[in-house]
Amino acid sequence: MRRVSRLVRVGDVALGGGSPVVVQTMTNTDTRDVRATVEQIRALVRAGAELVRVAVPDLAAAQAIREIKKEVTVPLVADIHYDHRLALAALEAGADKLRLNPGNLRDPQKIREVARAAKEKNVPIRVGVNAGSLDPRFLGKGKEVTPEALVRAALWEIELLEREGFRDIVVSLKAHDVPLTVEANRLLAREGDWPIHLGITEPGPELEGIVKSAVGIGILLAEGIGDTVRVSLPGDPVREVEVAWEILKSLGLRKRGPTFVVCPTCGRTGIDIPRIAAEVKRKLSALEKPLTIAIMGCPVNGLGEAERADFAILGGKGFGTIYAHGEVLLPKVPEERLVEELVRVVLEGVKAHA
Ligand code: SF4
């Protein structure tokens, strides 16, 4: 069962309050380069991003939000560190949400000022605590970062905001360490009903990053904790969005585009499953309609999977049979034509049901 959290609106996107878990990401362009940032945001939206955060390291970046917003419809989150004036400028420029880091923006007076300005504009604030920039006041006895320390840091800023009558609060507690992040979020979830933004921060190069994100975010989501997800990976943030969707799809929390069932290959495999699966995925990755596509090497598990999938290839020696909705559609298609035939069948099927 999902944890009950309060509803917070970010532009036209609902966080918490029983809404579907939202996929978000962050651009890695220079925000002042409006053209490059807009282009990246559009690619992220095509991949399924529902909220996009941009870095606001200076005033020019805050002001660029106004121009970026003219070109995109997805709500924009301004990522603020150190200087509360950047938060005020981002609000002026039309940011739909602020992320404040209580580790480096610590003056209560300045935080109150931001809260008042955000309240006036109905803009929510994420209290974003990171282990790497934790305020030393909250460190544990041995100066180590503990789950309790991360929670204390968040509660300090939450209290400040709530005393100001500000309630549109989202919270995140992130570390690169999975057990630390998981435990901190479990503790936080018991402290209040703020929507929780999940992520493992700085989790490593791509493979390590994907595994740690899937494990950490997956554990919490499976326990019903989490209202929005950001996967952090170095490189093109489109990958972050793809991984976030796969995590949500694998837990049955969201549906989007094809779900692939692919045989792991063994001594019985008689067609090039990895190549076929990769090509089919590449050609169908833009589909948004939820579908199950099975690509199987032989009848052992393939028959059952092919019959249950929306579309399937059931492999033989150098050929495959194409299934649609549990029925044989094209028997004994030569291996070299399997990708093209399956893709055609899927696209025709999707069009017919559009
Ligand atoms: S489906 Fe067949 S070919 Fe694929 S792993 Fe299973 S037994 Fe092997």
Range of strand content: 15-25%
Report the average pLDDT across residues: 97
- How far do the termini sit from each other? 33 Å
Q: CATH H-level name of the largest domain... which superfamily?
A: Dihydropteroate synthase-like
Tally the structural domains. 2
* Secondary-structure-derived class: alpha/beta
CATH class of the largest domain: Alpha Beta
Strand order of the largest sheet: 8-7-6-5-4-3-10-9
Q: Which runs of at least 5 residues are low in confidence (pLDDT < 50)?
A: none
| Principal-axis shape | elongated
Under the CATH scheme, which architecture of the largest domain would be assigned? Answer: Alpha-Beta Barrel
Walkthrough of the structure:
By secondary structure, the protein is of the alpha/beta class. The chain has two domains: 8-250, Alpha-Beta Barrel (TIM Barrel), CATH 3.20.20; 258-352, Sulfite Reductase Hemoprotein, domain 1 (2-Layer Sandwich). It has eleven helices and 15 strands. It has helices at residues 34-47, 59-71, 84-92, 108-120, 147-163, 178-191, 206-222, 237-250, 273-284, 299-308, 338-352, and strands spanning 8-10, 13-15, 22-26, 51-55, 76-80, 97-100, 125-130, 169-174, 197-198, 228-230, 258-262, 291-296, 311-315, 319-324, 327-334. It has an eight-stranded parallel beta sheet with strand order 8-7-6-5-4-3-10-9. Helix 1 (34-47) crosses helix 2 (59-71), helix 5 (147-163) runs parallel beside helix 6 (178-191) and helix 9 runs parallel beside helix 11 (338-352). It starts with 7 loop residues before the first strand and ends with a helix. Iron/sulfur cluster binds at residues 263-266, 268-269, 296-298, 300-302.
